[in-house]
Write a structure and sequence with these properties.
Number of domains: 1
Radius of gyration: 17 Å
Number of strands: 8
Strand content: 15-25%
Distance between the termini: 25 Å
CATH architecture: Alpha-Beta Barrel
CATH topology: TIM Barrel
Order of helices and strands: EHEHEHEHEHEHEHEHH
Strand order of the largest sheet: 1-2-3-4-5-6-7-8
């Protein structure tokens, strides 16, 4: 790490249950703690992951997690999936969100299948009064249409647009729904101009930082396996783009994440 933060950080989206961490997770944990990462939110992409993520929460007390089905994983959706997710959420207070859910029309065209999974999970989140983790790629218009339709019928939502990569205009629409915006390693990429503008423009109380590890490793580690400690590089770049100190971004993003997801974080006095 190039800079040691004075204040704790939260990695608001990671996937350390993936096999990329099978051989050295203890060392990875040492690095995230040394980097100041005091809490992590582990996102779930399909129900079969839940026992493994729960075991990680037993191992690392700073970890909380979600339960859900990713829009690109319809093969893991069945008639009883909502019941499985509900049971898992109610069985463990460390489940603090539903997701990773959403729409992805970059890698798939099965919009109706994705909408079915998304709607069912949004309903579950509302039932359980939990925030959602939204994956949205090349589908901002479709997502806005769905959320607007639900809002007009009295449905309300809390959550985050994960690993945000859309435009500032799209971001403003999601902010109007009350959603947070999360920045990953893509904010460090030189050509990600739209993401840079979003980081500059997002209100201070409405953004998070994340790794989405093992994916999207930030500059200067691009091309390597990503891990929670590297959220520091994301925070550094966000601070640079916003013209703020790293300390400000650490404090603000952590307070925002803790507020949204009830994470184990206490702001320094």
């Amino acid at each position: 790490m190039t800079v040691q933060p004075l204040l704790p950080l939260i990695d608001s989206h990671c996937h350390i249950v993936f096999r990329e961490f099978d051989d050295d997770l203890a060392v990875v944990a040492e690095r995230w703690r040394k980097a100041g990462v005091c809490a992590l939110l582990h996102a779930c992409v399909e129900p079969a992951e839940i026992p493994g993520i729960r075991a990680l929460a037993d191992r690392f007390p700073e970890l909380r997690y979600s339960v859900g089905v990713h829009p690109l994983d319809p093969q893991h959706w069945a008639s009883n999936t909502v019941d499985v997710l509900r049971e898992a959420a109610l069985a463990d207070s460390r489940v603090v969100a539903i997701g990773e859910l959403g729409l992805d029309l970059y890698r798939a065209t099965n919009l109706q299948d994705q909408l079915q999974m998304l709607t069912a999970q949004l309903n579950l989140a509302e039932e359980l009064q939990l925030p959602v983790i939204i994956h949205c790629r090349d589908a901002a218009a479709e997502m806005v249409d769905l959320l607007q339709s639900r809002k007009s019928k009295g449905h309300h939502i809390s959550g985050v647009m994960h690993c945000w990569g859309g435009t500032a205009a799209e971001m403003e629409l999601f902010l109007e729904f009350g959603l947070f915006i999360s920045f990953s390693g893509t904010v460090t990429f030189p050509k990600a101009q739209e993401t840079h503008q979003c980081a500059r423009q997002v209100p201070a109380t409405r953004y998070l930082v994340e790794t989405d590890c093992p994916f999207l490793s930030p500059v200067p580690r691009r091309g390597k396996r990503n891990e929670p400690a590297m959220v520091l590089h994301v925070a550094e770049r966000v601070a640079e783009l916003r013209g703020e100190s790293l300390e400000q971004v650490c404090l603000q993003s952590s307070a925002n994440a803790a507020q949204l997801f009830a994470l184990p974080y206490q702001a320094p006095a």
